[in-house]
Write a structure and sequence with these properties.
Blueprint (H helix, E strand, L loop, with lengths): L2 H10 L7 E2 L25 H10 L5 E3 L10 E6 L5 E9 L2 E9 L6 E5 L5 H9 L8 H4 L4 H9 L6 E5 L1 H5 L5 H10 L1 H25 L4 E5 L11 H7 L1 H13 L3 E5 L8 H6 L4 E3 L11 H8 L4 E6 L1 H6 L2 H16 L5 E6 L10 H14 L1
Parallel strand pairs: 1-12, 2-7, 7-8, 8-9, 9-10, 10-11, 11-12
Antiparallel strand pairs: 3-4, 4-5, 5-6
Helix pairs in contact: 2-15, 3-8, 7-8, 8-10, 12-14, 14-15
């Protein structure tokens, strides 16, 4: 089978010649010649791994749909610290209030830290919702764009290009810091649901347009983990996630696509609810202590409905001696394919994000290829 054929068969629940596997965020599409000083992949330590991903793994590179929840009159200022970190400050005035968000990116870390969030209270959210949002870009202005199709052509038969989108919860929750988000979501459910409805009204036409323009594609929806335990109780997951993601899944299914729901952390108390969205797959199914379920449990209880992506931890890739890491791989392959089930893809929870990839991490990735490929 080609790597593309293997991934499609896995999604359809058909027999495969071997379980699919990939390196999650490392897909072989990384630009090792970038002139961006914040691109970590230009460092030579990454180049063997990127080549390995391109040549040997069942690739699943992501492309996001170009949706943003924005107001008018945003002023942006970019500055740099003495150590070369990039600081992006954005301000906007709504009524009599000035709102501010500050983000920082360090040159040697593939992460953008939000050091100040747009909203600080429930009252801020009320003001935010009362102000008119910018009208979304008409779908025909971007749905014909070549970015996603170019990606498909680039990877060819080596895997599947995936469409990537937030759910409404992931558009609203990051407006706050995590503590304030959980407080507002827990104590002001009607207000928070209004915010989700507002985000959904703007987001859903984009999802429908992309699903129609590119039918039969594989999607990832991210954001449900914001409402997972211990942040919020399961009844709020059912309120803030299930109806919205179910609608998105139905849109994508109408056009022949598949959907993978991305949710880190604890799953045991929300797996039934994730299944209620009608999705086709989940990731990354983190084992204890990062999560609270073993892969074998999920395979037994939910494997008939869901393709399981997991459950290799990025911290194990970086820290576990290779002999023990090999044992983790073999255990995941055994538990993920044991008994009857729709399908399994060996898939890390994320990837290292420092500029220099350690020799141990490279050896552990190579072990995945040796065992799986």
């Amino acid at each position: 089978m080609t790597r593309r054929e293997r991934m499609l068969a896995t999604l359809r629940g058909e027999a495969v010649d071997r379980p699919a596997f990939n390196f999650c965020e490392i897909t072989g599409c990384e630009d090792i010649h970038s002139d961006d000083p914040f691109c970590i992949y230009t460092h030579p330590s990454w180049h063997p791994l990127i080549a390995l991903a391109r040549e040997r793994t069942d690739r699943l590179p992501l492309r996001g749909i170009p949706f943003h929840l924005e107001h008018n009159d945003v002023k942006t200022n970019i500055s740099f610290t003495e150590t070369g970190s990039r600081v992006t400050e954005m301000t906007r005035r709504l009524g009599s209030q000035t709102f501010r968000q500050v983000m920082q990116q360090d040159r040697d870390v593939l992460t953008v830290w939000t050091t100040e969030h747009w909203l600080k209270s429930a009252d801020d959210l009320r003001v935010w919702l009362d102000a008119p949002f910018l009208p979304p870009v008409p779908p025909h202005h971007w749905a014909q764009g070549s970015t996603f199709l170019d990606l498909e052509r680039e990877i060819g038969d080596s895997g599947l290009a995936m469409l990537d989108t937030a759910d409404p919860l992931c558009l609203v929750a990051p407006l706050f810091d995590m503590a304030t988000f959980t407080e507002v979501a827990f104590t002001e459910p009607e207000l928070f649901r209004s915010a989700l409805d507002c985000a959904a009204e703007l987001l859903f036409p984009f999802v429908e347009a992309a699903a129609a323009e590119w039918p039969g594609r594989f999607w990832r929806i991210y954001g449900p983990e914001y409402a997972s335990p211990p942040y919020l109780p399961p009844h709020l997951f059912r309120e803030y996630v299930v109806p919205y993601v179910r609608t998105m899944v139905e849109m994508i299914h109408r056009h022949g696509g598949w959907v993978r729901v991305h949710s880190h952390g604890r799953l045991r108390d929300i797996l039934d609810d994730i299944c209620a969205t009608g999705c086709d797959a989940i990731d990354p199914i983190e084992p204890p202590h990062q999560g609270d379920v073993e892969l074998a449990y999920v395979r037994e209880k939910y494997g008939a409905q869901l393709v399981l992506f997991g459950n290799i931890e990025a911290c194990d890739i970086e820290n576990l001696p290779t002999p023990q890491f090999r044992d983790k791989i073999r255990r995941a392959l055994d538990e993920g394919t044991r008994g009857a089930g729709r399908g399994f893809v060996l898939h890390p929870s994320s990837a290292p994000y420092g500029r220099i990839l350690s020799p141990l991490s490279l050896r552990n990735y190579e072990a995945m290829v040796e065992i799986c490929g």
